[in-house]
Amino acid sequence: MNPLRPDHSRDTHPITPDWVADAVFYQIFPDRFARSGRVTGLNLQAWGDTPHFHKYMGGDLWGVIERLDHIQSLGVNAIYFCPVFQSASNHRYHTHDYYRVDPMLGGNEALRALIDAAHARGLRVVLDGVFNHASRGFFQFNDLLEQGEASAYRDWFHVDGWPLQAYDDTRPANYAAWWGNRALPKFNTGNPAVRDFLWDVAEYWMQFGIDGWRLDVPNEIDDDSFWQEFRRRVKAVNPEAYIVGEIWGDAHRWLQGDQFDAVMNYHFTRPCLAFFGARTLDHPMNERSGTGRVDPMTAEAFAARMTDVTRMYHPDIVRAQLNLLDSHDTARFLTAVSGDATAYRLATVFQMTYVGAPCIYYGDEIGLPGGPDPDCRRAFPWNEQEWDGDTLALTRALTAARHATPALTRGTFEVTHAQGEGVVFMRRHEAGNAHIALNTAPNEAHLPVTGVTPGQYRDVLTGRTLTLTADTPLSVPARGALVLVPLG
Fold first, then answer.
1. Total-model pTM
2. Which UniProt keyword terms apply here (predicted)?
3. Choosing from 31, 60, 128, 216, which is the catalytic residue?
4. To pair with 121 at 20 to 30 A between CA atoms, which of 15, 160, 454, 478?
5. Can 246 be counted among the known catalytic residues?
């Protein structure tokens, strides 16, 4: 046993919110999801136009409320929103006012109505917290620009010299900003006033009724004590709140039980691209995207890597990881594999049957394409004739099976076969084991399945009933899968 990964098999009390293991998340980029028409007087792009860094489509929270039927029909029971607070950017990572939902999204009134409507349907709501940096329009930084060294908020930021140059790229900015972007001045989180302000924001929206926080670039607040107090305050309001950090690499530092519950699982994303998209990877696309270069993987390499990912953290944390195939920071999976819908569907089968909380990026369920930012943030096409009905039906079938089958949410992950382009794994659970077979080859494959409890199983993808014995070989369609759940 690896001494850095102690045996937690005897632990009985979850160290992460128990509901997350049963969650299916839906990520929404608010400006591009749905426009209600209730927010008027705006200069907007036509819905569906080519996304632009500085233009608005005008999606709003009222529009989300109007589309909750669609969201719920996906089997989704939790929504993660990209930032919703007032900002002079369509992505709203440039926060102006942390206590005010952007009026373009409908303001605090719309968020109140959305939370109430979501909770009435059993949907949880997680907001994006951007606490490492603010914006040039943030009042305290604006005061710094206006008053210079005399500003009452001089110590809220990292000032290197005077005068500050917030807009003139030909001269030194004289203040620290996120990756040198002058539009995003970095908070001085060593300042007690700043710490109290950010913690109060976290508490305020928890008391408002949200169910957790997704934390933007939290590793750049390089201070465990800040996040430890953040957790204490959030969990004091709601002990079942979900705190998930955007950490792209190793996250052990933040997953000791005193900071985050889980992280966005990009360790899951890359192997899925590498294996399911091995034949069609668009290397230039990925190299321009957040995922970076991804090289093809064999079944053996994929199985080994995903087994390692499953063992990376405490089992409760693994069950709470946010498993995503793409996001607002990457090219969409479909485009990253050159439009190969079979690769995306196979990856979705794995996502929905693997341990952890799957997260659907809005539009993926109907085949919405998109390259790197801003193209990955296209407007949702609400004309159903434009939808990929096969992908939508597959998504619904998989989420329904996940909710109905304890093994798919709570079972262990055990690979039973991996060779060439075929993988078979089992989710073992006392209520009955599930067996999943994946074939990325262009022809039908006969894959062995071991560890079967003899009996009848239903294939989630076709509805067929199969009778399995201890060593029944599985006939798996070309570029297809079997998801076998126990009957009875």
1. 0.96
2. Glycosidase, Hydrolase
3. 216
4. 15
5. yes
